[in-house]
Design a protein that fits this description.
By secondary structure, this protein is of the alpha+beta class. It contains 9 helices and 6 strands; from the N terminus they run ααααββββββααααα. The protein folds into 2 domains: 252 residues, no CATH class; 94 residues, no CATH class. Helix content is 54%, strand content 16%.
Amino acid sequence: MQRRRAPPLIIERYLFRELAYTLLGVALLLALIILSSTFVRILAEAADGTYPQQIVFTLFLLKSVPNLAVVLPLAFLLAVLLALGRLYKDSEMVVLAACGVGPEKVVRVVAVLSLVVGLVVAAFTLWIVPATKERSQRLLDEAAARNEIEGITAGRFNTTGSGDQLIYAEEMSADKRTLSNVFGYARDAAGRLNLIAAESAYQYFDRQSGDRYLVLENGYRYEGQPGAADFRIIRFGEHGVRIDEREVVPSKRALYSVPTERLLQSNKPNERAELHWRLAVPISTVILGLLAVPLARANPRQGRYGRVFAGILVYVIYNNLMTVGRAWVNKGTVPDWVGMWWVHLLMFALVLFLLHRHSRMPTAWRWPRLWPRREKTA
């Protein structure tokens, strides 16, 4: 009696759906954990005065994008382990095998999904992440140029704006928002010298006009030259001085914000190491997905979560080897053409070994092909 085979497209869609839904759930969970930590850290730094409060949300969005490239490789590995582990635990793999679905088809479905996820990760690491890192750094540079108080050093004379304004503050608060015992001078539109002395000062931003003001409290304003007829002394409880815009000075950029096109043309070891790393992350995503297929295999009586620990251990080892490979390229220990490829070849050899070792099928099944054979028609 000939064994009845299940329609191939139905089985492939079922496996693909199980893997995709599990990947979505795991990725959302890991992203929620990492993004929550990122948001709390940004809020804490904003409270300390490291970041202006106006850019907290935008900065959080920009810093969240690179985390997706970190989450996806691990999320895909765990998704394959959990999805296939459930199929083994519920004996669905036995049923699929009875329907003519062997390990070759499972590997093929995982390989196709691995390539899709790998391409998404490649888009992040090669283009999206460097662009968001650059935009994030530019945002911080613009915020530093707008926030004059953060650039003021207590106990020293500080120039602001175009250099026509000078401010001296004896002390600055811990959150870098309030100055104490402030002295300053500026010239008005008529060119007259104005001196100001106040007990405290803080910065104010007018949303309607877009102008920024240094608001001084409890002080005196001296206008004109002493002894002149138009010389005046004004006492105030609160007085605002408009701060001129300061030129945005780009800060030193880190390697992770350098465009990939520039890295391709560079011969510097550190930039070549960064390029190899950006290529290594999507490649590792594909290999980890294939590696999860033999790792997920278990008897129905065995728990599926035991394999998760093995998968995480393999992920940590793989990631550490990539870090070592990056350091070797950076130091020139290995040639550029070798790069980090030895790590991927080593892990891919482990994939082939585990597929061969865990396969109980005939020899033809021990080295699964990504594409099925064409059946000859009579």
